[in-house]
Structures are given as C-alpha cells and as structure tokens.
C-alpha cells in the first residue's frame, strides 16, 4: 500500500498551467527525486505537498489521511530549503532544537534528540558554533538535522545541494542518502541535476511542462527512456531519425526489425512496441560506442575525429560520420588519446540501440 499519494494534482496561475494532472504514489521509506528543467513544475509539486501553495484540483493523502486542505504547519513535514534558512543568531544545537521547542517537548527529551541528531550528521563537536562559523556542507547538514529531529513522516528537499561546490556536492549526495537510509524517512527531493537524481534515488520522476513523463528506477530511466526529451535530458545521447521496418533484412539475412535511417543506412534494433513504418529515433549513448583502429577492420561505420576533450576520468570525442555528428566517450585508462582528424571505424552492440518516439511538432521549441 502506498504511504504518500498525489492524485491528479493541478495548479493553474491565470493562463499558466504550472502542474497538470500529476500523479505519484510513494512507498514508505522510499527516496524519490523530481527531476526536470526550470519551469517544469517540480518545485510547484513540492510546494503543493508542503502546503505552501493551494492546488487548483487534486488530492494528497498521507498514510491514508487526506491532507490536501491542511495548512503547512498542520502537515508535520520536514523541509530543507535551497538556502538552508538557518537562524544566524542561534547555535547549531539551538537551530536543530527549534522545531522541538515549538512543539513544547520537555528539555531532557529535546537535548536527547538533538544529541542523537548531531551524532547522525557528524556535527557533535560543533554544537555551540553559529552558522557563520560553518562550511557550506556543515550548514547543509544542520538544515537536514533540523528537519529530521521532529521525526517527520516525509522529508522534502528543495535543491538542497545547489549552493555547494562540485566536489562537496558529490560528497553530500551520498551523505544525504546515508542519513535517509539509516532513519528510513520517506523523502522527496527536487533537483535539476541528472547525476544527482540517478545516483541517490530509488525512483526518479522526470517532469516536463507540468507533467510526469516517466517514473522509473534510475537505471531503467537511463537505459530505457520513453521519449526524445528524456533520452536527451537524462545523460548524453546520439539521436538518429529513421523509420522502423519489422521483419527487415540486409544482404540476405533476416532480422526481427531494423531502422532505415535518413542517410540510407539500416540498423538492426529491438522494435519494442513500435509498429512497422513508425517514425522513430535511434538512441545511442556515447559510452556505448567504440572506436575501431584502422588495422582492425572498418567496424559498422567510418568516422573521423573532429574534436576531443579531456574530462579527467574520461575522453569525449566529437565524430563526423555518414550518420552526421556523433559523440563518443570512453574511460581514461592512461593510454594516449586518439588524435584529431584520425580516421577510424565505429561499432556498438545491437542491444545498445534504443528506440524512442520523436517529440511531436507542437512540442518543439520555436
């Protein structure tokens, strides 16, 4: 049975539909990321759940209780804002204890809870410091501790890591996940960072134009995107337009299905649920393409390296080919990179090619 259910949530501001018939069921203890570009409705969803904005239509139930019309302070949810919103005149311990004081818990119980929370977030030696004396990561952990100390049924995180530098941000992703797993708190986090969403969540909700376009486990979302938007937004991809042909064949060899590309090439694919003759896009992830040295054969395709970029742990190549420009990435194994203008072969496994439906013309940007 679902612990938190959002049914048909819709929020309209005048002529602007910020959220359109949004549905989501969350199990107790699950970590969900709402992922999407700016203006997609993810923050509106979190604010509606928190009770900060009234919904135009829809229903929110928590543990079987309808909370749609309850005020924010009656929902009992824990919230961590992007800015952390710590009280500058209070110490770390006082900031964490604030919610307990508002609930009039006896001092001994307050102190015990704050002590446990300080230990959980590894700040037990900093209880008497003020926010100005802390690093960004430490302030973020104080905000999380303050939200969790009231033992909320649901923790809401509104891009809590966006103010941190890249290295600290990555470390804090896993710290957040560690804390959440230890406490088992049902958590919803808003982010526009794909790597963040994929690395720490149980499921990811990809949002576009106020709607959930795909709700899936991170690896399935990446490996089996359902739309052109998702394939390009969640990770890098090469998209090749063509037409699906079931029962296609090449050079006298029958295959279950293939895509006839606009350039004249034919690629064997898994057709999925697409009908024969459907216009499709072949999605090829850059890390699933492999360069073939000249002395090892032509591969599937002749390519030329136009540009290369060193990213530390990997190399990114931009290739020209009969299929158009392609991107390829490969791990940095310490060997010298291929030079620009090198002419090589390119290959990939048949199962690496995924089919997605092209975005309808009405949804294409002007």
Q: Can you tell me the CATH superfamily of the largest domain?
A: P-loop containing nucleotide triphosphate hydrolases
Q: Outline, from the CA principal axes?
A: globular
CATH topology annotation of the largest domain: Rossmann fold
**CATH class category label of the largest domain:** Alpha Beta
Describe the largest sheet: 6 strands, mixed
Task: Write a structural description.
- The protein has 366 residues and is α+β, with helices and mostly antiparallel strands.
- The chain folds into three domains: 4-228, 3-Layer(aba) Sandwich (Rossmann fold); 237-284 and 353-366; 290-347, OB fold (Dihydrolipoamide Acetyltransferase, E2P) (Beta Barrel), CATH 2.40.50.
- Helix content is 24%, strand content 34%.
- Helix 3 crosses helix 4 (107-120) and helix 3 runs parallel beside helix 5 (136-148).
- The two termini are 43 Å apart.
- Mean pLDDT is 91; it is low at 250-254.
Give the key terms:
366 residues, alpha+beta, Rossmann fold, OB fold (Dihydrolipoamide Acetyltransferase, E2P), 3 domains, 6-stranded mixed beta sheet, 9 helices
Summed up, what is this model?
The protein is built from 9 helices and 22 strands.
Can you lay out the helices and strands and say which pair or pack?
Blueprint: E1 4-13, E2 16-26, E3 31-35, H1 42-50, E4 57-62, E5 65-66, H2 72-75, E6 78-80, H3 92-102, H4 107-120, H5 136-148, E7 154-158, H6 166-183, E8 186-191, H7 194-200, E9 203-208, E10 211-216, H8 218-223, H9 228-233, E11 238-246, E12 249-250, E13 253-254, E14 257-261, E15 266-268, E16 279-284, E17 290-292, E18 301-310, E19 314-321, E20 324-331, E21 343-347, E22 354-356
Parallel strand pairs: 3-8, 3-9, 6-7, 7-8
Antiparallel strand pairs: 1-2, 1-4, 4-5, 9-10, 11-14, 11-16, 12-13, 14-15, 16-22, 17-21, 18-19, 18-21, 19-20
